[in-house]
Amino acid sequence: MAGQLNDFMKELPQLAGAEVVDSIQDNFRTESFFGTPWAPRVVQKGNDGKAILVQSGRLRRSFQVKTLGLVITIFTDVPYAQIHNEGGTIQGTAEVEAYTRHQYEMNEVSTPGAKKEKWKKEKVGTSQVRAHTRQINLEIPQRQFMGEHPKLDLRIKALIEAGLDNIFDS
Question: Pfam families recorded for this chain (predicted)?
Fold first, then answer.
């Protein structure tokens, strides 16, 4: 029994870390922090109905567990994770490089007498946009996905109790 307890204590930090990462994934799935809903997304063309905080999925997939003895560290290398988890304001100046803007118009390309009209978008011109700077003042609402919470404490406590019951009840 002492050997089983020792083995459980060695693997407990990794198990608890996995439980924390699972809770983060649950928060992304429910778009809430343990039941407290996130601020809704600002609806823009093309993002209506998409999951909140999921553009490419990079943030959601990025969480990792590192253990050292009984110390557990959950981390991500995504630079925008903190501003989304805590909320805040992004202020500064963005540099926009020069680029070419294309102008388009819709032209009918159906054959004469066709039952259904066909339209095609065709490029009618271009213009050069010079390099410039733009002031940014962007308010990011808090959409917490990780952090301390009593429900997370209960999940980890249940994990520990299940492991100990498994050792002492066998």
Answer: Phage_tail_S (PF05069)
Sequence letter at residue 144: Q
Domain extent at residue 131: 101-139
- How many domains in the chain? 2
Can you read off the two tokens belonging to residue 146?
Answer: 């990780």
* pLDDT tens for each residue of 64-99: 999 998 889 999 999 999 999 999 999 999 999 999
| DSSP 3-state of 34 | coil
- Can you read off the two tokens belonging to residue 121? 């978008």
CB 139 within 8 A of CB 21: no
Tens digits of residue pLDDT in 138-149: 999 999 999 999
CA–CA gap between residue 159 and residue 164 (Å, rounded): 9
